[in-house]
Amino acid sequence: MNDRFSAAPGTVTRAEIRTEPWSVAQAIEELTAAVTDPAAGAVVTFVGTVRNADQGRSVTRLDYAAHPRAEVALAAALASILAPGPPGSALRVAAVHRAGRLSIGDPALVVAVSAEHRAEAFDACAALVDRIKATVPVWKHQVFADGSSQWVGLP
User: Fold this and answer.
1) Where is 47: in which H helix or E strand?
2) Residue 134 contacts by C-beta under 8 Å, 6 or more apart in sequence?
3) Whether pLDDT at 36 is above 50
4) 136 has a pLDDT exceeding 70
5) What Å distances lie between residue 76 and 13, 24, 53, 60, 146, CA to CA?
6) Which of 81, 83, 114, 149 has its CB surrounded by the most CB atoms within 10 Å?
7) For residue 83, what pLDDT band results from cuts at 50, 70 and 90?
8) What gap in Å lies between CA 120 and CA 79, rounded to an integer?
9) Is 55 strand, coil or helix?
C-alpha cells in the first residue's frame, strides 16, 4: 500500500513543533500528502504566515517559544476535531507550528484537513486553527521596527 494512504481515516497524521525553516510550497506539499485519502473529496490547507505589520506597527520578525509539551497539546487539538459530529467529519488532519525565529513571509502555522466534502473540510480546518491558537502553548514575541517588542498569547 502507498505510504500516503497508510493511515486510517479519522487519523492525526502529523502533529509537530518544527524549528527548521521551510517554504510555503514545501509546507503545503508535505501536509497535503499527509492527509490525502482515497475517500476524501476535499483537502483544505491553511498557512499562517508572518506579516510585516500588526496593530498599525511595522514588524521586523517573530520569535515563537513553545512549551516542551506543545506537540502533545497540538496532537490533542488535532484529535479533538476528529470526534463525531460537526466539525468532526474530517478524515485526516495534520498540523505543524514553527518555533524559533521567523522572518516576514515565513509559514508559522500550517494545517491540512481532508474530508469527504469541501464544506466539512473548510469547517474542520477553520475550527482546528481556532482550537490550536486557543489551546497549544506556543507564544509569539513580536519585534517591531522601532526596536520595541511585545509577547502575544502568554498565559
Assistant:
1) strand 42-49
2) none
3) yes
4) yes
5) 12, 24, 31, 32, 38
6) 114
7) low
8) 16
9) coil
Residue 31 vs residues 27, 59, 97, 113: alpha-carbon distances, Å: 6, 28, 12, 9
| Unique residue bearing C-alpha cell 478524515 | 91
Cell, residue 85: 459530529
Per-residue pLDDT at 1 exceeds 50: no
Entry pTM = 0.89
Q: How is 118-138 classified by DSSP, letter by letter?
A: HHHHHHHHHHHHHHHHHHS-E
Residue by residue, DSSP assigns 16-44 as EEE-S---HHHHHHHHHHHH--TT-SEEE
User: Cell 502553548 sits at which residue?
Assistant: 137
Can you name the residues that pair with 96 across neighbouring β-strands? 16, 110
Query: Kind of pairing, strands 53-54 and 57-66?
Result: antiparallel
DSSP for 69-125 reads THHHHHHHHHHHTTSSSTTTTEEEEEEEEE-EEEETT-EEEEEEEEESSHHHHHHHH
Residue 11, pLDDT score: 87
CA distance between the termini of the chain: 44
Q: Mind listing the pLDDT tens digit for each residue in 41-82? A: 999 999 999 999 999 999 999 999 999 999 999 999 999 888
pLDDT (0 to 100) of residue 53: 96
